[in-house]
């Protein structure tokens, strides 16, 4: 598969989000199936795997997903880029500052991942009690010590990114981005392009909406399924956003591709520093999503798609700036 750079870290131009093997999209698959899925993705050419310490069933406990990913990649770990994330809770930070806290989280993640370094280590959510500059300083130390190759931030705006960047250059920003969540196009992506920072869109298929496989009658699972609160998956928004799916269906028919592939090919065409990490619990869909790398849009096709999308109003909005303990559930608060 073609590659891209997240600052100095080379990755396949599409990665996979591993969260669904542990959390967030209802019933999780048997572990053997998830491990096989990750290995099939690697065999296909994927070299970028995204996890987090918080991804565990029902967000109880910690590290379920990292353990699965670690087992899956053990035979090719050195050939891939492993990205994981941490939360820092205010009460963890003592007089020695944030460095020992981050190091403790990192060492626990490395043990679960079966590795002695992490390629890309993200702060999962900004904690407003802890200045991002301090986090950046600690991440810089971990880079100097060879424990991480680069670091990143998630769900942040340019003010936070630039404050962090001034202390330790940022490799990647992982914010929500898809055809129906485009706020990052205004400032975040231009800033990142200018500063050699990769943008790693999460939920690039809008939690499945853009695949066209979800209808207003789709019932989501009651437990541990984020689709119950994803704005575009509210019944009324699924109905109101149909024109976007019609645009996608038109292009997927023309390009003999699937809706999900077109939604990924669109962002790959639009920005050279964007590396989406679609998530799926299904082996066929994982390969389908990676196959978007082979869907080339010409400039004319891209422009026509862009114009058609611009003519649609998007219903339902989440936005990209979130803090720990804020509007969103505090992902690993219930651990241990
Ligand atoms: N930094 C953060 O705060 C944050 C937040 C959320 C997610 N993430 C990361 O980003 C990754 C991706 O995000 P996401 O999983 O929320 O969103 P996503 O990739 O937009 O969508 C995942 C959903 O779409 C469905 N889907 C995926 N590919 C499909 C296809 N080709 N056809 C039909 N349905 C398809 C999946 O169902 P099936 O499983 O049934 O295929 C799943 O329900 C996660 O795995 C995680 O690693 C990070």
UniProtKB/TrEMBL annotation:
GO terms for molecular function: oxidoreductase activity. Residues 13-308 form the NADP-dependent oxidoreductase domain. Pfam families: Aldo_ket_red. Gene3D superfamilies: NADP-dependent oxidoreductase domain (3.20.20.100). Keywords: Oxidoreductase. One of its GO terms (cellular component) is cytoplasm. PANTHER family: AFLATOXIN B1 ALDEHYDE REDUCTASE, ALDO-KETO REDUCTASE. This is Aldo/keto reductase. The lineage of its organism: Bacteria, Bacillati, Bacillota, Clostridia, Eubacteriales.
């Amino acid at each position: 598969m073609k590659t891209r750079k997240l600052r100095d870290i080379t990755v396949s131009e599409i990665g996979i989000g591993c969260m669904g093997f542990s959390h967030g999209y209802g019933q999780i698959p048997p572990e053997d199936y998830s491990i096989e899925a990750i290995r099939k993705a690697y065999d296909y050419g994927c070299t970028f795997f995204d996890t987090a310490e918080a991804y565990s069933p029902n967000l109880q406990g910690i590290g379920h997903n990292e353990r699965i990913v670690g087992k899956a990649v053990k035979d090719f770990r050195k050939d891939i880029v492993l990205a994981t994330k941490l939360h820092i809770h205010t009460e963890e930070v003592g007089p020695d500052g944030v460095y020992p806290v981050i190091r403790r989280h990192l060492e626990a993640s490395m043990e679960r991942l079966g590795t002695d370094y992490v390629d890309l280590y993200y702060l999962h959510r900004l904690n407003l009690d802890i200045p991002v500059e301090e986090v950046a300083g600690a991440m810089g130390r971990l880079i100097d010590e060879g424990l991480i190759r680069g670091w990143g931030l998630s769900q942040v705006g340019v003010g936070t990114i630039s404050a962090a960047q001034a202390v330790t250059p940022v490799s990647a920003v992982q914010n929500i981005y898809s055809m129906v969540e485009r706020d990052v196009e205004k400032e975040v992506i231009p800033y990142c392009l200018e500063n050699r920072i990769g943008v790693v869109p999460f939920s690039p298929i809008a939690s499945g909406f853009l695949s066209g496989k979800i209808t207003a009658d789709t019932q989501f699972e009651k437990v541990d399924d984020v689709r119950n609160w994803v704005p575009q998956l509210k019944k009324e928004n699924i109905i109101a956003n149909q024109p976007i799916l019609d645009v996608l269906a038109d292009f997927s028919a023309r390009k003999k591709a699937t809706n999900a592939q077109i939604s990924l090919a669109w962002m790959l065409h639009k920005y050279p520093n964007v590396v989406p990490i679609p998530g799926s619990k299904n082996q066929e869909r994982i390969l389908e999503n990676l196959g978007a790398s082979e869907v080339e849009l010409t400039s004319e096709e891209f422009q026509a798609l862009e114009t058609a999308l611009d003519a649609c109003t998007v219903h339902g909005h989440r936005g990209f700036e979130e803090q720990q303990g804020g509007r969103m559930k505090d992902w690993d608060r219930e651990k241990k």
